[in-house]
Amino acid sequence: MTRVASLAQQQVITSAALRTQRNVNDLQVQIASGKHTQRFSGVAENAGRLVNLKSDLKQAEQFIENIIITEKRLDLMTFAMDQIEKVARKARTDLAGAMNGSAASNLQIPELMEAARDQIVELLNTKDDSRFLFAGGATNTRPVDLDPANGYTAPTITSPRNPTFESGADTGYYQGDTVTQSTRIDEKFSVSYGIRASETAFEQVIRALDNVAAHTFSDPINNDEVTFIKAAMAELTDAIDDNGTDNTLADLRADIGLNRVVLDSIKGKHNDFLKFAQDSIAQIENVDTAEALASLNFEQIQLEASFTTIARIQTLSLSNFLR
Q: For residue 65, is it within any domain?
């Protein structure tokens, strides 16, 4: 039979239906994925900006990760420093109470100082996962080792009743290196951080405690031993409060605090950028679901109308048209 519709008309209507079908498919993908497109070509006018935003976002995320790792290490170091200072202050108090009568023997001062020294050693050997925090760059090495075979010279009491306090500094216990740790926290900014167990304040505390731990006190204590204890207390005071030259325990802890302030500031900057970048990327990539659903509904109605029209055209003939 002869068709009433022309081939050209059929092609126009079919082309429009196929175009509408593609729109429906695209809208369904948009709604399912929440994205305007799955290809950069779909956002050609913003493709360059999108690539740059994603690159900058990834870099900022890496900087934030570096900061978080460093913050964790600094927090552990701060905890260790707090505990070291507490142990040193208690040791000084115990020594102050040991300078009369039989107190040194009754309080078992050498044993107390040995225990305090061992606590200090363990705190200076604090680890974050697999790395030692107070060893400088030698992160796989325990920074403090009081074994004479590894370079440490313990104080020697030459006269049991007339002890002499060894005042010469000795960092032979330190097994780390002189490297200062650093981490990159911004495009052109790295922060140096950390404290080494060879710091003067640590050496003073260890030496003061080790001096007393090596001595067996008379009962009752004699004047020379009182002088000996006062020398140990003075060394602890230098390390805890002020020696006029080197950093005290409080100074070292304050240095960690300053690093923490810098990290917090830079992390805040990166977090602000993250929000900006994520919002900007979302504006380019993400689809308005409500709008997409409305468009899909409209396109589906159009598609159904196109299919109905095509079906009717295909059933028309000259005889049907003349009825």
A: no
